[in-house]
């Protein structure tokens, strides 16, 4: 995330801008009293955590970042070194594509700060073109899998961020902006972790960790466990279906009564139930070999069995 130097748009200090700024200021400020610049807050690019904001999320964040303050790490105790975002816009660059081939879109925040003595150094640095990074924080409601569209790492998704599936990269689509937090200037541009700090409500879970840089050594193990868990879920589903099928053979009412509750039973309970149904069915319907007619010849027409 970088600071885009102000002045390029030529609108700084205009009546419209001043009205937007003064909507947040306690006193009526004049153009001479303030310094304005703009920052790139976040974009639709897949970042190093293999996450990206959708264009819709950027539009939602646009509202949330207005009025948010930024702090510098120059001198935390100074307190006065604050900038505030007074206007935001979502910009699409027609000449630039992101890594997915989509038009590059970003959220731009316009900020102002007071031209006080304590802000002097920072203003000089921004003016002088010394590269400054900003770090922003926000939270989103969901992190959806780019492969299957389900919640990443949720019940039905076993994909892992950063991996390729059939030549397609798995990444998270951050959707449903919930909140935007304070943003800050970071002194060392190349600092790891600088940039957008995203939070997922309610919590990213294990798959989020495995998809992150810290968690990547565990991704192989997680993948195996996910596959096994999926297998287990399929087995349970099958067991439920089979138990219900046996219940239906015994008694329709029994089946209907059980239909809802089998969903809550674990494997042990289901196995026990199925076994008791098996026993009851065996006595209710004795084996076919004891029925008359077992030696009847059944005519098979070969054509019907073509595979
Ligand atoms: Zn998935």
Total of domains: 2
User: What percentage of residues falls in helices of 4 or more residues?
Assistant: 25-40%
What form results from the Cα inertia axes? elongated
Q: How much strand content do the residues show?
A: 25-35%
Class from helix and strand fractions? alpha+beta
Q: What ligands can be seen in this structure? A: zinc ion
Identify low-pLDDT runs.
Answer: 3-10, 188-194
**Helix-strand topology string:** EHEEHEEEHEEEEEEHHHH
Q: Please, how many helices?
A: 7
- Average residue pLDDT: 80
Distance between the termini: 61 Å
Total number of beta strands: 12
Largest sheet: 10 strands, mixed
* Alpha-carbon Rg, integer: 31 Å
Describe the structure.
The protein has 307 residues and is of the alpha+beta class. It has helices at residues 15-22, 55-65, 120-127, 205-211, 219-250, 252-261, 267-284; strands spanning 3-4, 34-43, 51-53, 69-72, 82-97, 103-114, 133-145, 164-165, 168-169, 172-180, 183-186, 196-200. It folds into 2 domains: 3-136 and 181-206, no CATH class; 222-286. It is elongated and about 100 Å long. The model is unreliable at 3-10 and 188-194 (pLDDT under 50). The protein binds zinc ion. Zinc ion (ZN) binds at residues 145, 147-148, 150, 157, 159.
